[in-house]
Write a structure and sequence with these properties.
Number of helices: 3
Strand content: under 5%
Shape: elongated
Number of strands: 0
Order of helices and strands: HHH
Length: 71
């Protein structure tokens, strides 16, 4: 089983959260991995290519140059 808990701050880790994990998995072996969530804007600016594409898209939006699709 795979379960994700997304919380906005480590300060939100409570006894209730730990108890919920314990109740969900009972006596089964588990592995807990904690990773910092990547800010979407930081990701888009993480490479020169991504940053260029993002800036181009923002400029197109500011110029009302939108792509129109018919579905």
């Amino acid at each position: 089983m795979y379960t994700s808990f997304h919380i906005s701050s480590a300060q939100e880790i409570t006894v209730e959260l730990i108890e919920a994990i314990k109740n969900t998995f009972k006596s089964k072996p588990i592995s807990i991995t904690i990773e910092e969530e990547l800010d979407t804007t930081a990701f888009l600016n993480s490479s020169a290519t991504n940053k260029m594409i993002l800036e181009k898209s923002i400029q197109q939006d500011q110029n009302n140059n939108h792509i129109k699709l018919k579905l």
